Amino acid sequence: MSKLQTSYVSDSRSDGERVKSRFQVRDNGLGFSPITIVLHWVVAALVLSIIAIEIALSVSPNSELAKVLNLLGTILFPVSVYRFWARTTSYHPLPLGTPNPVEVMVSRSVATALALAMVLLPIAAWLSKSAAGLPIELPGGLFIPAPISPDRQAARIFDVLFKIGATPFVIGLALHIFGACKNHFVLKNDALKRMLGKRVEL
Ligand code: HEM
Asked: If you measure from the C-alpha of residue 149 to the centroid of ligand 1, how many angstroms do you get, rounded to a whole number?
């Protein structure tokens, strides 16, 4: 079966034949898979919580909250590796309505860049903290092992790399959320509803 064909087979016959349905594992030209949809919102919740905790920690440091931040980052990483692989190896569903092709290219590039950033930023944060000799503690007294030994120069480099990545990431995320709001409130199409699970006819 080609990737463009839907793998969600729903075959309902008037003669009363049994309805066959198969779970759609991968995205295709016709729609997002339920796995993409669930993981998209899990990642969105994790990222927005991480940003909120980072802001709270910059106002008043709190070691318990820092452990929660480490835990969220630890959950985010493997989910993001899967999502980046899934995003780059399956078709992105066709855009809704008659959008400007440049906007489609920009929005898809931003979405893929966000997925890549979700893989690279946790690695940069992990290397930066390890090189700075900071233990990465999780709630319950668990620790994430350090991949490298403390080194001040390496810590500075990883910290700069993290900041270089984090700034365009936040800008890209703002652009992404702006695009979703524009589709929903101005263009009044079903792009956001499709990402919330609505089956949309193309
Ligand atoms: C409130 C926050 C967010 C909203 C409202 C939102 C909305 C959307 C919508 C409507 C789509 C579907 C676009 C289409 O039809 O092509 C989408 C796709 C996507 N979004 Fe978001 N998004 C949010 C947060 C995030 C975050 C935090 C990330 C990652 C850091 C992200 C990454 C992606 C990616 C990679 C896609 C492409 C589909 C996929 O592979 O999951 N989004 N988003």
From this structure: 36
